[in-house]
UniProtKB/TrEMBL annotation:
The active site is at residues 172, 246, 342. It catalyses: UDP-N-acetyl-alpha-D-muramate + NADP(+) = UDP-N-acetyl-3-O-(1-carboxyvinyl)-alpha-D-glucosamine + NADPH + H(+). This is UDP-N-acetylenolpyruvoylglucosamine reductase. Its cofactor is FAD. The gene is murB. Its main location: cytoplasm. It comes from Undibacterium flavidum. Pfam families: FAD_binding_4 (PF01565), MurB_C (PF02873). It is found in: Cytoplasm.
Length: 346
């Protein structure tokens, strides 16, 4: 592996974030192998100015809202590679470099005959970013098939293996998002995919898609095709309309509040949780406040899905934050429910 890397100044990140914000990074480096990352750490330790900059690790740029100017050292992870490492009696252990595109990786696992990740098809971003957010959709979270990851420790300069219990996974959360986001850089991620695969069809849209096509016994690729079609019908393509996917987390509330809401709003969408709480549909709450299809000067709300904020042209991080705060205030005023933002503001 070649340790040489190119450290750039004042770099546009417009094409590197899915919301399409025309942000600029004070310093920028693209990392394609471990040797480059180790060499970068050495230079940071030797260069007082470089070492004083805050670090920001950029994957696919699909879950971030950037400021116009980032006074950071932005590190874009582009370590590639995917392989079946080994197998146990129950699982195939599949490893991917952090820089691999998530959706392309999912499709690769399916073409190789490894089912399990199909419900996470078409989620934007990279494999390395998937544990940070603990991505999830259609009844599955990344942690359900997570096996381990390898991370580079910028403090010690060593590699560390994280098992599932080390990652503190939560709902769209992990230790890498809320605890150690500045210390570790994820190098690769491994998944344990089941040999005895069973489809996850708890969402009605998925079951209906398969039923309408007379697919009584779906294969993993059939479920993936259903997920792709459903997502394309509801969510805008970031290549066409800048967005960061689902902008708000589905709030989890006590049963008492959910029951109060049902009395006032019988159509309130909710899902029971194992601890007795209920998950509410953030999109439904926002829609009831009249935000779906809203158009501001540069930022709006997608007409087909109130959960998605979109770039109408020339959006800034400040404008996105302002609209998000307006929506949060309206939802709290009407329903007494706090909405949490999914993307990270930088």
């Amino acid at each position: 592996m070649k340790p040489e890397f190119t450290l750039q100044q004042d770099v546009s990140l417009h094409s590197l974030n899915s919301f399409g914000i025309n942000a600029r990074a004070h310093r920028f480096v693209r990392i394609e192998n471990l040797a480059q990352l180790q060499a970068l750490r050495t230079q940071i330790l030797a260069d007082t100015l470089l070492g004083s900059l805050p670090r920001f690790v950029l994957g696919g740029g699909s879950n971030v809202i950037l400021s116009d100017r980032l006074p950071h050292l932005v590190i874009q992870m582009a370590i590639m590679g995917r392989e079946m490492v080994c197998e146990t009696d129950e699982n195939y252990i599949i490893r991917s470099g952090a820089g691999e595109n998530w959706h392309a990786f999912v499709l690769w696992t399916l073409t190789q005959g490894y089912g399990g990740l199909e419900n996470l098809s078409l989620i934007p971003g990279t494999v390395g970013a998937s544990p940070i957010q603990n991505i999830g959709a259609y009844g599955l979270e990344m942690q359900d098939y997570f096996y381990s990851l390898t991370a580079f420790d910028f403090v010690s300069g060593e590699l560390k293996t994280f098992l599932k219990q080390d990652c503190a996974f939560g709902y769209r959360d992990s230790i890498f998002k809320s605890g150690e986001q500045d210390r570790y850089v994820i190098i690769d991620v491994s998944f344990a995919l089941p040999k005895q695969w069973q489809p996850r069809l708890s969402y009605g849209d998925v079951a209906k898609f398969l039923h309408d096509r007379d697919i009584a016994t779906p294969a993993p690729i059939d479920v993936s095709n259903a997920i792709i079609a459903i997502r394309q019908s509801k969510l805008p393509d970031p290549a066409v309309i800048g967005n960061a996917g689902s902008f708000f987390k589905n709030p989890i509330v006590p049963a008492e509040l959910r029951n109060q809401l049902l009395q006032q709003y019988p159509d309130c969408v909710s899902y029971p949780q194992t601890n007795g709480d209920f998950k509410l549909a953030a999109g439904w709450l926002i829609d009831q406040c009249g935000w779906k299809g809203h158009s501001g000067e540069t930022v709006g709300v997608y007409e087909k899905q109130a959960l998605v904020l979109i770039n109408l042209g020339g959006a800034t991080g400040a404008a996105v934050r302002a609209l998000a705060q307006e929506i949060q205030a309206d939802v709290f005023k009407k329903f007494s429910v706090n909405l949490e933002v999914e993307p990270v503001f930088v």
